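[job 4471] stage=fold_predict status=RUNNING
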Amino acid sequence: MPIITSPQEFNVDDLYVDLRHVIDRPLYLKCEGFNFAGSVKLKAAAAMVEAAEAEGALTPDSVIVESSSGNLGIALSLIAASRGLKFVCVTDPRCNPASMRVMRALGAEVRVVSDKDDNGGYLGGRIAHVRELCESGREYVWLNQYANRNNWLAHYRGTAPSIDREFPDLEVLFVGAGTTGTLMGCARYFRERNRPVTIVAVDAVGSVTFGGVPERRMVPGLGTSSRPDLVDESLVDDVVHVAEPDTIRTVRALSSRGFLFGGSTGTVVSGACRWLEAKYPGEDPVAVAIAPDLGERYLDSIYEESWVREHFGELPPDILGT
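[job 4471] inference complete, writing C-alpha coordinates
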Protein backbone atom coordinates (compact mmCIF):
# COMPACT_ATOMS: atom_id res chain seq x y z
CA MET A 1 0.00 0.00 0.00
CA PRO A 2 1.65 3.27 -1.12
CA ILE A 3 1.58 6.10 1.42
CA ILE A 4 2.64 9.56 0.24
CA THR A 5 3.16 12.94 1.88
CA SER A 6 3.19 15.15 -1.24
CA PRO A 7 1.09 14.79 -4.43
CA GLN A 8 4.01 14.56 -6.85
CA GLU A 9 5.19 11.34 -5.17
CA PHE A 10 2.39 9.38 -6.86
CA ASN A 11 2.57 8.52 -10.54
CA VAL A 12 1.54 5.37 -12.42
CA ASP A 13 4.50 4.74 -14.71
CA ASP A 14 3.88 1.23 -16.04
CA LEU A 15 0.39 1.32 -17.58
CA TYR A 16 0.12 0.58 -21.32
CA VAL A 17 -2.90 0.13 -23.57
CA ASP A 18 -2.70 -2.27 -26.51
CA LEU A 19 -4.50 -0.26 -29.20
CA ARG A 20 -4.60 -2.91 -31.90
CA HIS A 21 -8.27 -3.69 -31.32
CA VAL A 22 -9.10 0.03 -31.50
CA ILE A 23 -6.99 1.38 -34.37
CA ASP A 24 -5.98 -1.82 -36.19
CA ARG A 25 -2.30 -0.90 -35.84
CA PRO A 26 0.46 -2.47 -33.71
CA LEU A 27 0.78 0.23 -31.06
CA TYR A 28 1.18 0.27 -27.28
CA LEU A 29 0.13 3.50 -25.60
CA LYS A 30 2.05 4.53 -22.47
CA CYS A 31 -0.48 6.30 -20.24
CA GLU A 32 1.10 9.22 -18.40
CA GLY A 33 -2.03 10.87 -17.01
CA PHE A 34 -2.58 8.82 -13.87
CA ASN A 35 -1.21 11.19 -11.25
CA PHE A 36 -2.63 14.11 -9.29
CA ALA A 37 -1.73 16.57 -12.07
CA GLY A 38 -3.35 14.43 -14.76
CA SER A 39 -0.51 14.58 -17.28
CA VAL A 40 3.11 13.78 -18.10
CA LYS A 41 4.01 17.36 -17.17
CA LEU A 42 4.17 16.46 -13.47
CA LYS A 43 7.59 14.86 -14.05
CA ALA A 44 9.13 17.94 -15.64
CA ALA A 45 7.52 20.30 -13.14
CA ALA A 46 8.88 18.34 -10.17
CA ALA A 47 12.37 18.13 -11.69
CA MET A 48 12.54 21.85 -12.47
CA VAL A 49 11.27 22.92 -9.04
CA GLU A 50 13.62 20.56 -7.19
CA ALA A 51 16.61 21.78 -9.22
CA ALA A 52 15.73 25.44 -8.65
CA GLU A 53 15.47 24.80 -4.90
CA ALA A 54 18.79 22.94 -4.83
CA GLU A 55 20.50 25.80 -6.71
CA GLY A 56 19.07 28.38 -4.31
CA ALA A 57 17.11 30.15 -7.04
CA LEU A 58 13.79 29.21 -5.44
CA THR A 59 13.21 30.15 -1.81
CA PRO A 60 10.14 30.18 0.46
CA ASP A 61 9.59 33.85 -0.48
CA SER A 62 9.71 33.22 -4.22
CA VAL A 63 6.82 33.40 -6.64
CA ILE A 64 7.08 30.80 -9.42
CA VAL A 65 6.00 32.12 -12.82
CA GLU A 66 5.65 30.09 -15.98
CA SER A 67 4.07 30.20 -19.42
CA SER A 68 1.78 27.23 -20.04
CA SER A 69 -1.16 26.21 -22.22
CA GLY A 70 -2.53 24.15 -19.34
CA ASN A 71 -0.93 20.89 -18.26
CA LEU A 72 2.38 22.22 -16.93
CA GLY A 73 0.50 25.03 -15.23
CA ILE A 74 -1.62 22.49 -13.37
CA ALA A 75 1.45 20.48 -12.40
CA LEU A 76 3.22 23.56 -11.06
CA SER A 77 0.05 24.68 -9.25
CA LEU A 78 -0.05 21.33 -7.49
CA ILE A 79 3.62 21.39 -6.50
CA ALA A 80 3.51 25.03 -5.40
CA ALA A 81 0.48 24.31 -3.21
CA SER A 82 2.21 21.31 -1.61
CA ARG A 83 5.27 23.45 -0.83
CA GLY A 84 3.40 26.54 0.34
CA LEU A 85 4.68 28.61 -2.59
CA LYS A 86 2.91 31.14 -4.80
CA PHE A 87 2.53 30.46 -8.51
CA VAL A 88 1.47 32.63 -11.45
CA CYS A 89 0.53 30.85 -14.68
CA VAL A 90 0.61 32.94 -17.84
CA THR A 91 -1.63 31.32 -20.43
CA ASP A 92 -3.75 32.30 -23.46
CA PRO A 93 -7.36 32.04 -24.70
CA ARG A 94 -6.80 28.51 -26.05
CA CYS A 95 -6.30 27.12 -22.54
CA ASN A 96 -9.19 24.85 -21.59
CA PRO A 97 -11.55 26.53 -19.07
CA ALA A 98 -11.39 23.36 -16.97
CA SER A 99 -7.60 23.67 -16.74
CA MET A 100 -7.90 27.27 -15.55
CA ARG A 101 -10.42 26.22 -12.90
CA VAL A 102 -8.12 23.47 -11.65
CA MET A 103 -5.17 25.85 -11.35
CA ARG A 104 -7.24 28.41 -9.45
CA ALA A 105 -8.65 25.72 -7.18
CA LEU A 106 -5.05 24.83 -6.29
CA GLY A 107 -4.33 28.45 -5.35
CA ALA A 108 -2.56 29.63 -8.49
CA GLU A 109 -3.04 33.01 -10.12
CA VAL A 110 -3.95 32.62 -13.80
CA ARG A 111 -3.26 35.44 -16.26
CA VAL A 112 -4.63 35.17 -19.80
CA VAL A 113 -2.57 36.94 -22.47
CA SER A 114 -4.25 37.56 -25.82
CA ASP A 115 -1.41 39.36 -27.65
CA LYS A 116 -0.31 37.35 -30.68
CA ASP A 117 3.28 36.97 -31.83
CA ASP A 118 4.67 37.31 -35.36
CA ASN A 119 3.64 33.72 -36.19
CA GLY A 120 0.04 34.30 -35.18
CA GLY A 121 0.34 32.37 -31.91
CA TYR A 122 0.27 33.44 -28.29
CA LEU A 123 3.58 32.02 -27.05
CA GLY A 124 5.57 35.17 -27.77
CA GLY A 125 3.06 37.29 -25.88
CA ARG A 126 3.01 34.90 -22.95
CA ILE A 127 6.78 34.87 -22.63
CA ALA A 128 6.93 38.66 -22.94
CA HIS A 129 4.52 38.93 -20.00
CA VAL A 130 6.62 36.48 -17.98
CA ARG A 131 9.72 38.59 -18.62
CA GLU A 132 7.87 41.73 -17.54
CA LEU A 133 6.88 40.08 -14.27
CA CYS A 134 10.46 38.97 -13.60
CA GLU A 135 11.73 42.49 -14.29
CA SER A 136 9.14 43.95 -11.90
CA GLY A 137 10.38 42.12 -8.83
CA ARG A 138 13.17 39.79 -7.68
CA GLU A 139 10.66 37.47 -6.02
CA TYR A 140 9.49 36.15 -9.41
CA VAL A 141 11.32 33.00 -10.56
CA TRP A 142 10.80 31.79 -14.14
CA LEU A 143 11.58 28.09 -14.54
CA ASN A 144 11.43 28.43 -18.36
CA GLN A 145 10.23 25.01 -19.48
CA TYR A 146 11.27 25.84 -23.07
CA ALA A 147 14.99 25.96 -22.24
CA ASN A 148 15.35 24.25 -18.85
CA ARG A 149 17.50 21.11 -19.17
CA ASN A 150 15.72 19.59 -16.18
CA ASN A 151 12.64 19.37 -18.41
CA TRP A 152 14.27 16.74 -20.63
CA LEU A 153 16.35 15.24 -17.81
CA ALA A 154 13.13 14.20 -16.06
CA HIS A 155 12.33 11.94 -19.01
CA TYR A 156 15.92 10.85 -19.61
CA ARG A 157 16.02 9.58 -16.03
CA GLY A 158 12.45 8.39 -15.70
CA THR A 159 10.18 7.99 -18.73
CA ALA A 160 12.68 6.46 -21.17
CA PRO A 161 14.17 3.89 -18.74
CA SER A 162 10.64 2.86 -17.81
CA ILE A 163 9.81 2.17 -21.47
CA ASP A 164 13.13 0.39 -21.93
CA ARG A 165 12.40 -2.00 -19.06
CA GLU A 166 8.98 -2.93 -20.39
CA PHE A 167 9.97 -3.12 -24.08
CA PRO A 168 13.60 -4.29 -24.43
CA ASP A 169 12.95 -5.00 -28.14
CA LEU A 170 11.44 -1.58 -28.86
CA GLU A 171 11.67 -0.58 -32.53
CA VAL A 172 9.69 2.67 -32.80
CA LEU A 173 8.87 5.36 -30.24
CA PHE A 174 6.34 8.11 -30.96
CA VAL A 175 6.56 11.25 -28.82
CA GLY A 176 4.50 14.43 -29.09
CA ALA A 177 6.41 17.71 -29.47
CA GLY A 178 5.45 20.66 -27.28
CA THR A 179 8.39 22.08 -25.36
CA THR A 180 10.08 18.87 -26.63
CA GLY A 181 11.22 17.97 -23.11
CA THR A 182 9.72 14.47 -23.24
CA LEU A 183 10.94 14.00 -26.82
CA MET A 184 14.53 15.14 -26.19
CA GLY A 185 14.88 13.20 -22.93
CA CYS A 186 13.68 9.93 -24.44
CA ALA A 187 15.68 10.42 -27.65
CA ARG A 188 18.91 11.12 -25.76
CA TYR A 189 18.44 8.06 -23.58
CA PHE A 190 18.10 5.63 -26.48
CA ARG A 191 20.78 7.35 -28.62
CA GLU A 192 23.40 7.25 -25.87
CA ARG A 193 22.81 3.53 -25.43
CA ASN A 194 23.08 2.88 -29.18
CA ARG A 195 19.64 1.31 -29.21
CA PRO A 196 18.21 0.83 -32.73
CA VAL A 197 15.00 2.68 -31.86
CA THR A 198 13.39 4.94 -34.46
CA ILE A 199 12.37 8.18 -32.74
CA VAL A 200 9.35 9.79 -34.39
CA ALA A 201 8.26 13.25 -33.28
CA VAL A 202 4.55 14.04 -33.63
CA ASP A 203 3.72 17.71 -34.07
CA ALA A 204 0.60 19.71 -34.92
CA VAL A 205 -0.01 21.24 -38.33
CA GLY A 206 0.63 24.97 -37.90
CA SER A 207 3.49 24.48 -35.45
CA VAL A 208 6.91 25.97 -36.24
CA THR A 209 8.94 23.62 -34.02
CA PHE A 210 10.33 21.65 -36.95
CA GLY A 211 10.18 24.38 -39.58
CA GLY A 212 6.48 24.15 -40.39
CA VAL A 213 4.39 27.02 -41.73
CA PRO A 214 2.66 28.85 -38.86
CA GLU A 215 -1.11 28.45 -38.90
CA ARG A 216 -3.99 28.81 -36.47
CA ARG A 217 -4.08 26.09 -33.81
CA MET A 218 -7.02 25.69 -31.43
CA VAL A 219 -6.17 22.52 -29.48
CA PRO A 220 -3.75 23.32 -26.63
CA GLY A 221 -0.79 21.07 -25.85
CA LEU A 222 1.41 20.11 -28.77
CA GLY A 223 2.98 22.53 -31.21
CA THR A 224 4.52 25.98 -30.80
CA SER A 225 4.54 29.37 -32.50
CA SER A 226 8.15 29.87 -31.39
CA ARG A 227 10.79 27.15 -31.66
CA PRO A 228 11.81 25.88 -28.19
CA ASP A 229 15.50 26.13 -27.25
CA LEU A 230 15.50 22.46 -26.23
CA VAL A 231 15.03 21.17 -29.78
CA ASP A 232 17.87 19.10 -31.25
CA GLU A 233 16.67 17.71 -34.58
CA SER A 234 19.71 15.43 -34.87
CA LEU A 235 18.10 13.20 -32.21
CA VAL A 236 14.89 12.74 -34.21
CA ASP A 237 14.54 10.28 -37.09
CA ASP A 238 11.24 11.50 -38.50
CA VAL A 239 8.50 14.06 -37.90
CA VAL A 240 4.76 13.66 -38.49
CA HIS A 241 2.45 16.69 -38.59
CA VAL A 242 -1.18 16.09 -37.65
CA ALA A 243 -4.08 18.35 -38.59
CA GLU A 244 -6.46 19.18 -35.76
CA PRO A 245 -9.52 17.55 -37.39
CA ASP A 246 -7.51 14.30 -37.35
CA THR A 247 -6.80 14.85 -33.65
CA ILE A 248 -10.54 15.21 -33.00
CA ARG A 249 -11.35 12.14 -35.10
CA THR A 250 -8.82 10.05 -33.16
CA VAL A 251 -9.84 11.07 -29.63
CA ARG A 252 -13.44 10.29 -30.50
CA ALA A 253 -12.50 6.92 -31.96
CA LEU A 254 -10.69 6.14 -28.70
CA SER A 255 -13.54 7.40 -26.51
CA SER A 256 -16.00 5.27 -28.47
CA ARG A 257 -14.09 2.27 -27.10
CA GLY A 258 -14.03 3.61 -23.54
CA PHE A 259 -10.65 5.39 -23.56
CA LEU A 260 -11.11 9.10 -22.80
CA PHE A 261 -7.82 10.77 -23.70
CA GLY A 262 -6.81 14.39 -24.23
CA GLY A 263 -5.98 16.34 -27.35
CA SER A 264 -2.24 15.79 -27.15
CA THR A 265 -2.79 12.04 -26.97
CA GLY A 266 -5.16 12.16 -29.93
CA THR A 267 -2.51 13.95 -31.97
CA VAL A 268 0.20 11.43 -31.06
CA VAL A 269 -1.98 8.39 -31.81
CA SER A 270 -3.18 9.87 -35.11
CA GLY A 271 0.38 10.57 -36.23
CA ALA A 272 1.58 7.14 -35.12
CA CYS A 273 -1.19 5.39 -37.08
CA ARG A 274 -0.38 7.27 -40.27
CA TRP A 275 3.37 6.67 -39.90
CA LEU A 276 2.99 2.94 -39.20
CA GLU A 277 0.64 2.51 -42.15
CA ALA A 278 3.20 4.16 -44.44
CA LYS A 279 6.38 2.58 -43.06
CA TYR A 280 5.24 -0.85 -41.84
CA PRO A 281 2.21 -1.86 -43.94
CA GLY A 282 1.03 -5.31 -42.89
CA GLU A 283 3.92 -5.70 -40.43
CA ASP A 284 3.98 -5.91 -36.63
CA PRO A 285 6.83 -3.80 -35.23
CA VAL A 286 7.24 -3.20 -31.49
CA ALA A 287 5.94 0.36 -31.32
CA VAL A 288 5.13 2.56 -28.32
CA ALA A 289 3.49 5.99 -28.21
CA ILE A 290 3.44 8.24 -25.16
CA ALA A 291 -0.01 9.51 -24.12
CA PRO A 292 0.61 12.83 -22.34
CA ASP A 293 -2.86 13.45 -20.94
CA LEU A 294 -6.40 12.31 -20.18
CA GLY A 295 -9.61 13.73 -21.60
CA GLU A 296 -11.70 15.23 -18.79
CA ARG A 297 -10.28 18.73 -19.30
CA TYR A 298 -11.27 18.65 -22.97
CA LEU A 299 -14.98 17.96 -22.43
CA ASP A 300 -15.84 21.60 -23.24
CA SER A 301 -13.71 21.67 -26.38
CA ILE A 302 -12.79 18.75 -28.62
CA TYR A 303 -15.51 16.53 -27.15
CA GLU A 304 -18.18 19.25 -27.45
CA GLU A 305 -19.86 19.39 -30.88
CA SER A 306 -20.78 23.08 -30.64
CA TRP A 307 -17.11 23.97 -29.95
CA VAL A 308 -15.93 21.84 -32.87
CA ARG A 309 -18.43 23.42 -35.26
CA GLU A 310 -17.58 26.93 -34.05
CA HIS A 311 -13.88 26.50 -34.76
CA PHE A 312 -13.82 24.01 -37.63
CA GLY A 313 -17.21 24.36 -39.30
CA GLU A 314 -19.24 21.34 -40.37
CA LEU A 315 -16.87 18.40 -40.16
CA PRO A 316 -17.55 14.98 -41.69
CA PRO A 317 -19.80 12.71 -39.59
CA ASP A 318 -16.95 10.27 -38.90
CA ILE A 319 -15.07 12.97 -37.00
CA LEU A 320 -18.00 13.75 -34.73
CA GLY A 321 -18.80 10.09 -34.23
CA THR A 322 -22.30 10.41 -35.70
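[job 4471] summary: The beta strands are 16-18, 28-31, 63-67, 86-91, 109-112, 140-142, 172-176, 198-204, 238-242, 287-291.
[job 4471] exit 0
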